[in-house]
Predict the structure of Glutaredoxin domain-containing protein.
Amino acid sequence: MAGRISVCGVALLSVFLTSLCSSSVYASTPVSAFVKKTISSHNIVVFSKSYCPYCKKAKAVFKELNQVPHVVELDQRDDGGDIQDVLNGMVGRRTVPQVFINGKHLGGSDDTVEAYESGKLAKLLGIAEDDDL
């Protein structure tokens, strides 16, 4: 029984320390400042990797809507891994794409496609057509 508690305790400590590092250490770094400024400075932000099929799918949604997102291609930056760490601390995901609309996290590829298909994305972007016209 003591062995089990020890393993569980180590696992919980690991999760806690990872969370602590993600939220406090990265909160004041230049990379964190870059991520926050990028999100707040653009209506549409996609953190992406140029070769990722899910990223391509998310970016294609904006092309369908005739919208040009600000895209940060993490695989083309020396600090791409650090940016992913910051995103993990912010939204709990390290995967790409991560999409932000008007400063708010929308989600990944599936979330973006779902929001597009439901009309939610057009509304968030202020390009929804009035139904009563």
